[in-house]
Design brief:
Length: about 425
């Protein structure tokens, strides 16, 4: 995003706020995209000014802005608004967005807001919240276009013209039977180019790729990315169409998963909340486990050096290579961790394959160690440290890289298992 326009918008909003130009401020906000308004609200640090901005927005736009905000900021704003206003806002946005906003609230507050919503919207939100967290059912939208095989293209186009605009997407039109079982899909392009008298059954594509409502959201994201879908249908255990997951929701999931993988890359468990919303003790708990493991590994290295302390005393030239040996072990471990985390993120490796990964990395680490040991031997000889010292350094490197690679291969699968 271009920072200059954003900084200019924020400056203008702050100037209008300070001047009390409410009408001009409201008109200025109305011309912006909800995501931009969310950025502005996040950048405004004064709580009452944030509240002023959200109160100036119409209900529909306010709901879209809330869905773009970090959960802690959205909760802060809703806590200072009347429950009736919040319920009105939630009624104006897609039910999956409403459910996403509500899921982070305390049970009592969530139930109060749902009760204040219109019965139809409340029932849809309750249905979404009944699905497991991080599942396809929780993130899907239920407002989806359904076609019948017997309809003609002309009838279908007339139906779409009179369709409620609240439908999430009509890039793909899904075909169901009389019991709502998913039987086919018709891309919008195929519909508008087909003869008016053709039936939906003639132009549809059967054997639709779909997901179950209880499938993990990460699996859904991988499926959408694999087939380059704009949306994927969600079915229940009986194969009935219950909703769709759209690509914008999938992008949010991919961002979340990438964030988790990056945090694991640094040897820390992923944070459940935004950084400033996470208590310091929770951050300590997330980080201490892997640091303890690495600390134990470091003490083993120290034990080895201590055991051979008399050797390093006799051969003081060995001390020159100690930082090199320790640094090589750390770098080898970091490389392994980064490689395995990336493979886990892409689905190339699964946590249950930890032993196979360790065997492969052991061979790789040992081979790298032999190559580095050979180079180190030559370097030691050039420094005229003697054959004995050169051999010690050359033989140490394979074992160091082997050990570092094994530990590096073990951390990511254990982290993924512990976090799932």
């Amino acid at each position: 995003m271009n920072e200059q326009p954003q900084a200019h918008r924020l400056q203008r909003v702050r100037a209008l706020l300070a001047a009390g130009e409410v009408s001009r401020l409201s008109a200025s906000l109305a011309r912006l995209h909800p995501a931009d308004v969310a950025d502005i609200i996040t950048d405004v640090e004064v709580p009452h000014e944030r509240l002023t901005l959200i109160r100036l927005l119409p209900d529909e736009m306010a709901g879209e802005v809330l869905s773009e905000l970090e959960p802690d900021v959205a909760q802060e704003l809703m806590a200072h608004m009347s429950p009736e206003r919040v319920a009105d806002i939630l009624e104006e946005i897609a039910t999956d967005d409403a459910a996403e906003i509500l899921e982070d609230l305390p049970n009592v507050v969530r139930e109060e807001l749902i009760t204040l919503m219109e019965p139809e919207e409340a029932a849809e939100v309750r249905k979404l919240l009944a699905y497991p967290e991080e599942s396809a059912g929780r993130m899907m939208t239920q407002d989806v276009v359904r076609l019948r095989r017997r309809w003609t293209v002309e009838e279908t186009l007339d139906y779409l013209r009179h369709l409620d605009r609240s439908a999430e997407t009509i890039y793909y039109l899904y075909v169901v039977d009389d019991s709502d079982h998913l039987v086919g899909v018709v891309p919008l392009r195929a519909l508008v180019t087909a003869p008016p008298e053709a039936t939906i059954g003639q132009i549809m594509t059967p054997n639709v790729i779909s997901v179950r409502a209880d499938d993990d959201q990460e699996d859904v994201a991988e499926l959408v990315a694999k087939y380059n879908f704009l949306a994927v249908p969600v079915v229940d255990d009986a194969g009935r169409l219950v909703g769709i997951v759209t690509v914008d929701d999938v992008m949010d999931v991919l961002e979340e998963e990438a964030t988790e993988d990056i945090q694991r890359l640094g040897g820390s468990e992923p944070l459940d909340k935004p950084y400033f919303a996470t208590p310091a003790l929770a951050i300590v708990r997330k980080r201490i486990g892997w640091l303890l493991l690495l600390f134990v590994g470091g003490t083993l290295t120290g034990s080895v050096l201590r055991h051979f302390a008399h050797v390093s005393t006799q051969f003081s030239a060995l001390n020159i290579f100690v930082p090199l040996l320790i640094g090589t072990g750390g770098n080898a471990g970091s490389q392994t961790v980064a490689t395995i985390i990336r493979a886990l993120a892409l689905g190339e490796v699964r946590s249950k394959e930890a032993l196979r990964v360790m065997a492969r990395e052991a061979a790789t680490g040992l081979t790298i160690g032999v190559v580095l040991g050979t180079i180190a031997f030559g370097r030691a000889m050039l420094w005229q440290t003697g054959v004995s010292v050169a051999l010690v350094v050359a033989l140490s490197l394979p074992f160091i890289t082997l050990w570092a690679s094994l530990i590096g291969a073990l951390i990511p699968p254990l982290g993924r298992t512990g976090g799932s």
